Amino acid sequence: MNTPILRTEELKAYYVLDLHGTQKVVKAVDEVSLEIRENEVYGIAGESGCGKTTLLKTLVASIEPPLRLIGGKVYYRVTDLDGIDLTTISPSSSPGAEGDRWWTSGEVDVSSLSPETKRRLRWEYISYVPQGSMSVLNPVTKVKETYRDFIRSHASGKTRKEAFELAKEQITELGLPLKTLDAYPHQLSGGMRQRVTIALAALLNPRVIVCDEPTTALDVVVQRGVVQLLKDIQAKLNNTIVVVTHDMGVQANIADRVGIMYAGKIVEESTTERIYGNPAHPYTQYLINSLPRFGDKTTRESVPGSPPSLADLPGGCPFHPRCPYALDICGEQMPSFTRLEPNHRVACWLVGEGEDGKTA
Amino acid sequence: MEKLLRVDNLTKVFSLGSVLSRIRITAVDHVSFHINPGEIFALAGESGCGKTTAAKMILGFEKPTSGDIVHKGKRGEKSTNEKVWFTEGVQAIFQDPFGTFNPLRIVDRYFFETIHNYGLAGSREEAIALIEEKLHAVGLNYEEFSGRYPSEFSGGQLQRISIARALLTDPVLLIADEPVSMVDASLRMSIVNLFKKLRDESGVSVLYITHDLATAYYVSDRIAIMFRGHIVEMGPVEDVLMNPKHPYTTLLRESVPEADPTKRWSERISLTELEHEEYLRQGCKYAGRCPHATDICMSEVPKDVYVGNVFVKCHKYSGDATPSAVV
């Protein structure tokens, strides 16, 4: 098993909204403990509004009001090998009695870092490809100018020519046509823009690339091209890719391990083979069994009911109002994780009482 | 059996660019198909293949450059009366359930408006009874529906409300343009199952326009695959998707990600051509990417042929099949 590169501990990130004096709290990420390892593709699946995007935002430390980090920690494992001078990484608060907390055994607590350090870690250590990223490219400059801006702000001291050389080299290596560099974004198709954005995110060889719905809104053939590109990048850089998508077909194709998210919590996590072959949580079972398959026309059922509002969650397990197997206890108490296998944990009362520490 | 809807040589040409450098793109190029009563017909293809333009022409939102749309033996596009007669029988469901409804209007008003426009009820009580009946058909009830704004519903619920509204006129054909692509994955099947139920219980036909071949396989009886304005393959869904003949259908079918980690893609694909380059291509539009392309594919548009009961537009089959004139 590879060492964890990104770790969260009981992460809680809520949107706190002030509406005419009454406070509304949207629990988008609620006590999530994750371990994402080196050299793997980790998939996060769940329906829209379950907190997937917010989880990613906290992972890349891009937390802006109304989103607030309420509790928990995000740790990055940074080593000298990543080409980042560790001596330049400094905590935001002055070192004192708690001064050694931000640095334990190669792990950095992200919330303690200064904004400048966070800015440097972004793209060089962790890259974020946001949802709808085909529209992030600057519409009034050519793609190569975007590349140059990007290189200049992170790898200073390169001339214009060197920057273009680097861009060309990377574009060729990833099998994208060279003419994209000389095109304006509107001249490229959505799938091509998506692939250029992903290529840009991989340019500085980051250890972690986080992609939010990279294949959504793309055609199947283009979708396949994006998955192929992500796999190529992962094989080339031997890094970690976190892919968030609701498309279980894409997850099956790319992920090594999958975490299923429901209403701000991870409810099941295992290797892709086990999640698809042996799903334990009723929600996961519905997600997988509802998918139509070629050569099989038997009736498929959707998950009953509708997803809950994160501002007004039901008590106990958030899935219990939709769950056909709900027990009395499900409405009262959130189950903690039960480990079915070393690699397979699930939070459901039907599966077990939960002996694996606290709920997540 | 009389065809419910017949589309004959439907063509739409769009002009791009200025007067001096004009390019003409044939978004829909001599497309012909028909829909029988009580069947779900899927029109599948990638974005930019012309499937939405075809739907818009059927619904009368775009004027065809040439070709005929015949509903129950009549061309319903001349006078206002004919339009009303046409839309009463043919109703539409759109892709984005959030965009379908005005966020500042309660959803009931759309229902009352439709009832008023078609004169479907004599009194408010009758109207409410009709709305209740249609909401029941899509699995909602009037109490949880009335007086609420679109933002109070989930995407899946809104899409069902949209279908219930379309059902008010007792249509014989629903035209559903990508009805599930904006709906949550966990709720998709409830919408698709609804189409099945409407077909089986009320004999409603559906033109299901989609890029999702997996749901198309699950729900439809016949399917047409469109590519750059042409129908390249059409026939019973079992034949077309389980045993694809056109190389493009094969590529599409293989590119659908299967929810099975043991069936990952192993072959690589290349994506380089730009969309309008393919539109402007002489000969077969797919020739630039086709692994079986020969010289004739580059220069000549393939003829329409039937292989068994499947329509194919590919030079591979032009030698050994019957010409389409027989059908």
Separation, N- and C-terminal Cα atoms of chain B:
14 Å
Unreliable runs of chain B, pLDDT <50, ≥5 residues? 323-327
Q: Outline of chain A, from the CA principal axes?
A: globular
Query: What string gives the helices and strands of chain B in order?
Result: EEEHEHEHHHHHEHEHEEHHHHEEE
Mean pLDDT of chain A: 84
Helix content, binned percent of chain B: 25-40%
| SS-derived structural category of chain B | alpha/beta
Order of helices and strands of chain A: EEEHEEEHEHHHEHEHEEHHEE
Number of helices, counting only DSSP H or I runs of 4 residues or more of chain B: 13
* Biggest interface pair, counts: A-B, 45 and 45 residues
Mean of pLDDT of chain B: 86
Placed side by side, the strands forming the largest sheet of chain B appear as: 5-6-7-3-8-9-11-10-12
What is the end-to-end distance of chain A? Answer: 22 Å
- Alpha-beta classification of chain A: alpha/beta
Biggest beta sheet summary of chain A: 8 strands, mixed
Number of strands of chain B: 12
**SS elements, strand count of chain A:** 13
Q: How big is the Rg of chain B?
A: 21 Å
Residue windows where pLDDT falls under 50 for at least 5 positions of chain A: 90-104
Q: Which percent band covers the strand fraction of chain B?
A: 15-25%
Give an overview in words.
The complex is a heterodimer of chains A (360) and B (327). By secondary structure, chain A is α/β, with parallel strands linked by helices. Chain A has a domain at 126-205. Helices cover 26% and strands 24% of the residues of chain A. Chain A has helices at 52-59, 115-124, 143-154, 160-173, 190-201, 220-237, 248-254, 272-277, 282-289; strands at 4-19, 22-37, 41-45, 67-77, 103-104, 107-109, 126-129, 208-212, 240-244, 257-262, 265-271, 338-341, 344-346. In chain A, a hairpin with a 2-residue loop joins strand 12 (338-341) and strand 13 (344-346). In chain A, helix 5 packs parallel to helix 6 (220-237). Chain A is globular, with a radius of gyration of 21 Å. In chain B, the strands form 2 sheets. A 9-stranded mixed sheet of chain B has the order 5-6-7-3-8-9-11-10-12, with helices on both faces. Chain B has a 3-stranded antiparallel sheet with strand order 2-1-4. Mean pLDDT of chain B is 86; it is low at 323-327. Chain B has helices at 51-59, 80-89, 97-100, 108-118, 124-137, 142-145, 155-167, 188-202, 213-219, 237-242, 247-255, 275-280, 295-299; strands spanning 5-16, 23-35, 40-44, 66-71, 90-93, 173-177, 205-210, 222-227, 230-236, 305-307, 310-312, 322-323. The longest helix of chain B is centred in the middle third of the chain and has 15 residues, at 188-202. Chain A binds chain B through residues 47-48, 175, 177, 189-192, 219-225, 227-228, 246-253, 272-273, 276, 286-288, 290-295, 297, 299-303, 306-307, and chain B through 46-47, 154-157, 184-190, 192-193, 211-215, 217-218, 241-242, 251-253, 255-265, 268-272, 274-275.
